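pls design
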């Protein structure tokens, strides 16, 4: 049985979040939480929160054994970008894209 959690519209570039996500793919829950706790990236907190949410979702199902859960799938998709403008020289304007991410975590039993 699978358990899933999704965090949407995270105000961070998907490229930065993928660096953290790649660290825990395929690991069991305990190891993944330890890795995220000591990773010095802002995205680690967001990914840890989503992982804990997926574990809590797994606890709701009595058919799932919590001790043998592992990260089956974890991926980051790009969300909508906020478009902003910055003033430049000679009256011009340059665009700024503030990117967002959607983080998906799927847990399964070994």
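designed seq:
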């Amino acid at each position: 049985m699978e358990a899933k959690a999704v965090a949407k519209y995270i105000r961070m570039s998907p490229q930065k979040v993928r660096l953290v996500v790649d660290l825990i793919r395929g690991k069991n829950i305990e190891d993944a939480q330890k890795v995220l706790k000591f990773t010095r990236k802002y995205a680690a907190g967001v990914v840890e929160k989503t992982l804990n949410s997926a574990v809590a979702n797994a606890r709701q199902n009595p058919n799932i054994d919590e001790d043998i859960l592992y990260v089956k799938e974890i991926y980051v998709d790009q969300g909508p970008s906020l478009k902003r403008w910055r003033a430049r020289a000679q009256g011009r304007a340059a665009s700024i894209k503030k990117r967002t991410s959607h983080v998906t975590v799927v847990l399964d039993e070994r």
